[in-house]
Design goal:
Layout: H1 2-18, H2 21-26, H3 29-52, H4 57-106, H5 115-124, H6 131-155, H7 160-206, H8 208-216, H9 220-272, H10 278-325, E1 341-348, E2 358-365, E3 370-375, H11 381-388, E4 396-401, E5 404-405, H12 411-415, E6 418-421, H13 432-437, H14 444-453, H15 457-461, H16 484-498, E7 502-506, H17 514-527, E8 532-536, E9 548-553, E10 556-561, H18 563-569, H19 572-590
Parallel strand pairs: 3-8, 3-9, 6-7, 7-8
Antiparallel strand pairs: 1-2, 1-4, 4-5, 9-10
Length: about 600
């Protein structure tokens, strides 16, 4: 019980922090709801007494008008409060969804790549409805006040009324408990199935690569079976809920009918022997039925309250996940103009794996140096880049930028210090300008200059909207689709525009032909003057840019030095270079 109270107080603090107006508009509804429930029982009795008593027509009209105006006033106040609280609840939900997105964007890659962590993110979204818990508490308090008032009315005539109500209530409590236990498991099953559905829908409507694969390989029927399996799973979950609810509701309907029969028999007997009037008959019957409904609603609200406790717990898990990743950050706020990177005995294994991908790496990338990383597939090249980008933490050892552990540098400042083009880069369905600057304040002249430097200017100049042309037709009918090489140049332009002291390139020219590749590396050498550059490449054209070459083999440093030095050593790099040279010569002769 104490734990639930603590959670409730934490939820109230969260609501007060995100949308305090919800509390202002919700709390007065406790009074209006309770008053309306009690008046619904008392008003019919008062009107019937006036009608059956010795009263003038004017007196009857006065009574009816008075109570009608009172009910109208309370309903208007309640409706106004409800509309304002609903608006505040919608704002709160938006704030929470934004907060969940913000937290998710700050999590480390390891915290969003596993199925268990994705489940936490998925289920945390249920917290957007946390204002419902205050509505539930408000309704619970209103119901308790109503129940006390109605119980006092009912027990004045016959204690058997409370016994009949108690039987129905006990069964309802049992069903609510069972429903809650079922929902604990069902909510995880729904979340898991929703992730599958979101993935399939994303492939079908928003993934151009997947759409091509489905059509070219004639996979429509196969893919639709996947969709049908997802739908069938969802229907199975919903059907289980339906059957369970139908059974519970059927049993409750029988019990409610039996209760009404008992109450009506007792009231009829009391009326016939003159104990109560017809007005009392109406009031007592309304009191018992309303009391039963209020108690049933209260048990339902308790179940919903417990479910909201789970929703908040899921949200807190996501917040805790972010808290666990944070470490004490330095207070520096200046972005460095140059970057020196040091790997100090760095070892790394992916979360959940006991196999090291990188082992005991020790090397220094001097300020303004151009380092190329080479190695056979699976040697750890891309993983090394991910570590520099703070996408993963080293299992042991440290990575330093200008003498400071990069994990002690605030992310906002660190990421302003690096510009990166990844092997699996992603351009977005925004304008070309937005894809380069990712900002509302852009330097259009500089964007044009960069496009010209990378051989993209002529294409852009021929577009009707120039750099304000939308990419893809997903949201703009006049959007454009770029070729693979053009798409990659756009990603490269983005890294250059950022003007960061550290430039990271993971196979940046994979989609370009040999001529375009040579031009790009020549442009890099000119535009990256004075910057520290770390890049991965298998291509010969990259050699002109590299001042030092690091050769990885099995996660360890095999060789380190200049191109000429490594060629003289005749090791792994020399063999790879010779193989590349033969391939290049063969390609040139064929062309």
């Amino acid at each position: 019980m104490r734990r639930k109270i603590r959670i409730l107080l934490a939820i109230l603090r969260l609501i007060a922090e995100k949308e305090p107006s919800y509390l202002l508009w919700s709390l007065p509804q406790i009074i209006t709801n309770s008053a309306l429930s009690l008046l619904a029982v008392y008003v019919p009795k008062r009107i019937l007494e006036t009608l059956t008593g010795v009263s003038t027509f004017e007196k009857i009209v006065q009574v009816i008008l008075f109570y009608s105006m009172l009910l109208l006033f309370l309903n208007m106040i309640n409706s106004y409060l409800s509309n304002r609280s609903n608006l505040a609840a919608a704002k709160f939900a938006s704030e929470i969804r934004f907060e969940i997105g913000r937290i998710t964007m700050q999590l480390e890659m390891k915290d969003i790549e596993t199925a268990s962590q994705r489940k936490i993110i998925q289920m945390a979204n249920n917290a957007s409805g946390l204002t419902g818990i205050l509505g539930i508490v408000r309704q619970m308090i209103s119901n308790v006040i109503t129940i006390v008032g109605l119980a006092w009315i009912a027990v004045r005539l016959n204690v058997l009324f409370l016994l009949a109500i108690a039987v129905v209530l006990a069964v309802k409590i049992l069903f609510s408990y069972l429903q809650f236990r079922f929902n604990i498991k069902a909510r995880e099953l729904y979340a898991k199935n929703d992730r599958v559905g979101d993935y399939l829908i994303g492939l079908a409507y928003f993934d151009n690569g997947a759409q091509k694969e489905l059509r070219v390989n004639n996979l429509q029927g196969w893919f639709m079976k996947k969709i049908l399996l997802y739908r069938e799973k969802m229907l199975q979950l919903q059907y289980k809920d339906f059957k369970r609810n139908a059974l519970f509701e059927s049993i409750m309907a029988v019990l409610m009918g039996a209760q009404s029969l008992v109450v009506l028999v007792i009231l009829a007997d009391s009326y016939l022997d003159g104990t109560i009037t017809i007005a009392d008959f109406t009031m007592y019957f309304s009191a018992v039925t309303s009391l039963t409904a209020a108690l049933n609603a209260l048990t339902q609200q308790i179940r919903c309250y417990n479910e909201q406790m789970l929703n908040f717990t899921d949200y807190q898990k996501l917040v805790d996940l972010l808290t666990q990743t944070k470490i004490e950050a330095t207070l520096d706020t200046e972005i460095p103009t140059q970057a020196e990177i040091v790997f100090d005995d760095v070892t790394f294994a992916y979360p959940g794996s006991d196999k090291n991908v990188l082992e005991h790496l020790n090397f220094t990338i001097q300020k303004g140096e151009k380092l190329m990383i080479v190695g056979v597939n699976g040697s750890g090249k891309t993983t090394l880049i991910k570590l520099i980008c703070k996408l993963y933490r080293p299992t042991s050892g440290r990575i330093l930028m200008n003498g400071k552990d990069i994990w002690s540098i605030p992310n906002e400042m660190y990421y302003r210090s690096i510009g990166a083009v990844f092997q699996d880069y992603r351009n977005f369905a925004f304008t070309l300008t937005e894809n380069v600057s990712f900002s509302e304040n852009t330097d259009s002249k500089r964007i044009h200059a960069i496009f010209r430097e990378i051989g993209f200017g002529g294409f852009i100049d021929n577009l009707p909207k120039g750099i304000n042309t939308s990419l893809t037709r997903q949201f703009a009918s006049d959007g454009i689709e770029l070729s693979g090489g053009q798409d990659q140049k756009l990603a490269i332009a983005r890294a250059i525009y950022k003007n960061a002291p550290l430039l990271i390139l993971d196979e940046p020219t994979a989609s370009l032909d040999v001529k375009a590749e040579s031009e790009i590396y020549a442009d890099f050498g000119r535009m990256a003057k004075g910057k520290t550059v770390v890049f991965i490449s298998h291509r010969m054209a990259a050699m002109m840019l590299a001042e030092q070459i690091l050769v990885l083999n099995g996660g360890r440093i095999e060789e380190y030095g200049s191109h000429s030095k490594l060629i003289r050593n005749g090791g792994l790099y020399a063999k790879m270079y010779a193989a590349q040279s033969q391939e290049f010569i063969a390609t040139e002769s064929c062309s």
